[in-house]
Design a protein that fits this description.
Elements (H helix, E strand, L loop, with lengths): L17 H5 L7 H14 L2 H6 L16 E13 L6 E12 L2 E14 L2 E7 L7 H11 L1
Antiparallel strand pairs: 1-2, 2-3, 3-4
Length: about 140
């Protein structure tokens, strides 16, 4: 992805933005982890997604659909998740194209920092929704 814009939408090139996180640098905030996870979906880095998933909800394996193309990310709201926080949430919408059809994945993601590293816990609880089903459907459909 040499010189190309980072999929997360911040305007930097991939290598100096999410690429450095994919290479092992820890994300400083919950939002930066969420953006880097979106970029991992966009570039097909399933290993990074698994490494940054909290063990309590991480699937044993993750296969990304090569025919799904992620095209745009919009961060709608961030609560906590800063440099001095232990938890945070990020609400976002991610646009994708699959078999020529546009789709939108909307989620409020929960994050926790342990031992100085942010990890993805899963989507925030939704009324009437089964959290475990949502976590796995996001992972397998995306």
């Amino acid at each position: 992805m040499d010189g190309r814009a980072c999929p997360c939408g911040l305007g930097d090139d991939y290598e100096s933005c999410c690429g450095r996180l994919h290479a092992g640098e820890p994300a400083p905030t919950a939002e930066s982890l969420m953006r880097s996870r979106y970029s991992a979906f966009a570039v097909g880095d399933a290993g990074y997604l698994l490494r940054t998933w909290h063990p309590s909800g991480r699937p044993p394996e993750l296969t990304l659909d090569p025919d799904l193309r992620w095209t745009r990310l919009a961060v709608l709201e961030t609560r906590d998740g800063g440099l001095f926080d232990a938890t945070g949430t990020v609400q976002f919408r991610a646009v994708y194209v699959e078999q020529g059809q546009r789709g939108v994945h909307a989620e409020t993601s929960r994050f926790i920092r342990q031992d100085g590293h942010w990890t993805y816990l899963g989507p925030a609880d939704l009324p009437g929704a089964d959290r475990d089903t949502l976590v796995y459907s996001v992972a397998l459909d995306a």
